Amino acid sequence: MIRLQHSGNANGTIIATYTSYVDHRAEDPVFASTNEGRTFTRIATLAPGATSKNLCCTSLFELPRQIGALPAGTLLWAGAKNANARPMSLPVWRSEDHGHSWTLLSTAYTSPNQGGVWEPSFSVDASGQLICYFSDESDPAHSQLLARTVSTDGVHWGPKQQVVALPDHSARPGMAVVHRLPSGQYFMTYELCSTTGPDCPVHYRASADGSDWGNPATPGAEVVGPNGRIPEHTPKFTVTPDGRILLASLAYDNPDGSPAPGNGAVLLVNGSAGAGSWSVIPAPVSAPENNRKVGPCTNYSPALLPVGNNGNQVLEITTRDEAGICRAYYGTGASSQ
């Protein structure tokens, strides 16, 4: 979910999407809201030729500046796509009419083997380079690592670069999200899972230029809430106009790994670029995962966006499993205590 900020008369429009499966074909319906997320209208359907179950982990991004021949305000969409047989790839589609029509632009990365590539997301660094971050299972030295590829035009992409690649083979950093804070600093969150345990605590890094994230072989700092409780799995965050970071995750756990009070029903908030303490506020949409069966539906990768007067509210879209049917819900709540 994004808000248009570089699209002229369309500025302020909220664009949202999710992945669905219709007649054995994966597709992303595209929705727009012009009233701060009170109602949404379907404006398009992105169907990138993937069969059912072969499209995952899609993302939206609005270019804040011109990249090659792509003007500011161009929308980019990317997802993790399987052919009927691997290798996997990360196709990139574009829209120059605020999400109403889409065309294939490029492929940001294709796996060199049968290893998966997942969860693409975009950022533009301080030098104007377009970066696609993704989770990479194709390196035999790592169960998974966080990688990126860089483009100056959105069409041609450079070689894969490591962003978080830990020496412990069992470590699985993934699901990177990057936003630029009002201070100009860049902030990244990601989950840090392991093949040896069920937990995936949320970690973060900061960068002055959106390119240098420090030593890839270090895990980064962990997000810790009150009483040592931690957000885990599929983190997403947004930034309010005054610089507060609002973080959503699939689960919220006690230090011993058991579900904490508010599991699936809270957001974490930090006003110091990740440093210091994180507080807890109610999530606009409650989606508890109390049975600890982490899967691709309930509260998986919730989307957040500041709305209202100077971001005093937050809009959330998340999903719930209802008798085996995954449904998306949205709601708005206060962005502070």
UniProtKB/TrEMBL annotation:
SUPFAM superfamilies in the cross-refs: Sialidases
Lineage: superkingdom: Bacteria
InterPro entries: Sialidase_sf
Entry-linked Gene3D superfamilies: 2.120.10.10
Name of the protein described by the UniProt record: Sialidase family protein
Naturally occurring in which organism (per UniProt): Streptomyces silvisoli
Upper classification of the organism: Bacteria, Bacillati, Actinomycetota, Actinomycetes, Kitasatosporales
